[in-house]
Structures are given as C-alpha cells and as structure tokens.
C-alpha cells in the first residue's frame, strides 16, 4: 500500500511544471531554424558579391579574396544608376498616390453611408480573387489605346489602385473609436476635415506598413514593366538585373553585386520601419 503511494508520487508531475522539452522550447527551436533558413541565402548573396570571379562559386560563406571591383563594374559598364532611379521614382510615386486614394476610399467605405456601399466594397474585394496574369493582356490593350506605352504614366497609373490596401485600411478604420469623429462633427467639421485632421494622423502605423508593402511590391515589379516598356531609359532595376544576367551569365560575382545593390534599399527600409509594421499587424485585426 505504501509502495503504491510512493510510486504514484514519483510518477505524477506536479501541476504547472513543464518538462525539459516543452512546447515553448519546440517553437523557439523551430523559429531559429526557419530564421536561419531565411537569412542564409541573403547573407550568402551579400558575402559572395565581394568575391572574385574565381572564388564566387567556392561554396565558402566568408570571402577569401575580398574586392569592391564587382560594384564598380556594375555602375560603370551598365547604366545601373538609371535603373535604380527609375525603380525608386516609380515606386515612390505609386506608394504616395496609392496611400492617398486608398485611405480616402477606405474611410468612405468604413464611415460614410450611401446606397450600394456594401456591394461596392464586395466588388472591390472580389478583385483580390483575380490573379495578375488574367488581366495582363486587357490592361496592356487599355494602356496602348491611351497612348501610355513606353512612358512613366504607363508604369505608374495601372499600379496605383489595389484592393488589398483599401481592404486593410477599411478594416483598420472600423476599429477606430467613433467618438472622436462625432465630436469633430459636432464642432462643425466636415468629412474632409475629419479625414485629414483626425483619421490620417491616427492611421500612421497602418499607413507606414502599407507604404513598405507597396514600395517593395513595385520595386520588385518585373512582368508589367517588361510588357509595357521597351525604352532603355525606362528600364527598372529588376529588368536591368535580368538583362545583366543574360549578358554575363557566367560572371556570378557581377550578378550577385547587382542583386545586392537592388536588395539593400529594401532591407534598410524594413529595419527602419519594422516597429510600425509590427504595430500595424497588432492593431489592424479583421472586424
């Protein structure tokens, strides 16, 4: 009888005590492994961009022959600075204009009441189910008829409107307290004043996150610039890297240097605004 009681006491784990391999430990190990898998290719690209042609495929993470000649070659032999400027200009204009129009549309869909509002939002949301290749040819025909081929307008205007931004902003606005807007209306403010003076300042976290997403998506755009432009002066950085790869297919040191130059602005931008991105994810839950 006494021995059974002792055995029960030994084998029973006290309430609240976790074993050495708890679920928290497993998730931490999984997160570390996934992080290493994600970071390693980027780190390998960065270090290999400083290697010579003879050592770029040696499989070593740390360069044995450190050189900056790859970056000098990229900027002197091809108009890579022009490619960077084109991508920056197009991405910046699309981001600013898209955030302005998307925020206005989302505020109207979240706060204003008018006939057909829910149906209009449903139609906008339904466009998320249509993939880009489906509308590529019709969009190209429209741009051609409007005479916007081989122009900044053809690269910028079709990329401005995106249902994802309107949807995310609308959900964010639905979570804002109505009391502030109602107080402003009582004080005599119209919808535009409420939007500009109250809603926009409160939307900085979600707007910062969307700015990163929009800028990154257009910085990495490849298919649409390839379709709508043939002018060398309008070449964006991703097309420049593709043409650079086809021209120097065996010189991986130059290709990796060009890819590093194209990736660095996005990495820097992400590290600067990572707090806003995290806050936007925390505060923009679906309603």
State the helical fraction.
over 70%
* Gross geometry: globular
Question: How many individual helices?
Answer: 15
Average pLDDT value?
83
Coarse structural class: mainly alpha
Alpha-carbon Rg, integer: 26 Å
Helix and strand run: HHHHHHHHHHHHHHH
Distance between the termini: 59 Å
Beta-strand content: under 5%
Sheet of most strands: none
Quaternary structure state of the chains depicted: single chain
Question: Uncertain segments of ≥5 residues (pLDDT<50)?
Answer: 5-13
The tally of strands reads 0
Topology of helices and strands:
Blueprint: H1 2-11, H2 23-48, H3 69-77, H4 80-111, H5 117-126, H6 132-145, H7 152-156, H8 163-174, H9 178-186, H10 191-202, H11 204-219, H12 223-228, H13 237-247, H14 252-272, H15 274-283
Helix pairs in contact: 3-14, 4-8, 4-11, 4-13, 5-8, 9-10, 11-15, 13-14
Distinctive features:
single chain, 287 residues, mainly alpha, 15 helices, 71% helix, globular
Structural overview:
By secondary structure, the protein is mostly helical. Helices cover 71% and strands 0% of the residues. It has helices at residues 2-11, 23-48, 69-77, 80-111, 117-126, 132-145, 152-156, 163-174, 178-186, 191-202, 204-219, 223-228, 237-247, 252-272, 274-283. The longest helix has 32 residues, at 80-111. It is globular and about 70 Å long.
């Amino acid at each position: 009888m006494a021995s059974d009681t002792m055995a029960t006491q030994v084998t029973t784990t006290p309430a609240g005590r976790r074993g050495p391999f708890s679920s928290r430990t497993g998730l931490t190990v999984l997160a570390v492994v996934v992080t290493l898998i994600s970071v390693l290719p980027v780190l390998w690209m960065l270090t290999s961009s400083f290697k010579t042609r003879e050592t770029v495929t040696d499989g070593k993470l740390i360069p044995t022959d450190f050189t900056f000649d790859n970056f000098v070659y990229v900027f002197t032999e091809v108009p890579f600075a022009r490619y960077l400027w084109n991508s920056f200009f197009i991405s910046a204009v699309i981001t600013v204009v898209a955030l302005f129009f998307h925020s206005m549309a989302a505020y109207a869909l979240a706060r204003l009441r008018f006939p057909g509002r829910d149906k209009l939002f449903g139609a906008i949301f339904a466009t998320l189910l249509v993939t880009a290749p489906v509308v590529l040819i019709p969009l190209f025909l429209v741009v051609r008829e409007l005479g916007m081929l081989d122009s900044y307008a053809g690269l910028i205007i079709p990329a401005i409107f995106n249902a994802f931004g309107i949807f995310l902003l609308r959900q964010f606005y639905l979570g804002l307290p109505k009391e502030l807007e109602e107080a402003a209306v009582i004080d005599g403010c119209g919808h535009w004043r409420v939007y500009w003076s109250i809603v926009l300042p409160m939307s900085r976290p979600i707007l910062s996150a969307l700015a990163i997403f929009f800028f990154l998506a257009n910085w990495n755009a490849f298919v649409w610039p390839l379709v709508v432009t043939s002018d060398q002066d309008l070449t964006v950085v991703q097309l420049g890297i593709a043409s650079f790869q086809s021209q120097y297919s065996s010189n991986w040191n130059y290709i990796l240097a060009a890819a590093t130059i194209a990736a660095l602005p996005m990495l820097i931008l992400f590290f600067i605004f990572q707090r806003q991105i995290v806050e936007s994810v925390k505060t923009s839950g679906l309603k």
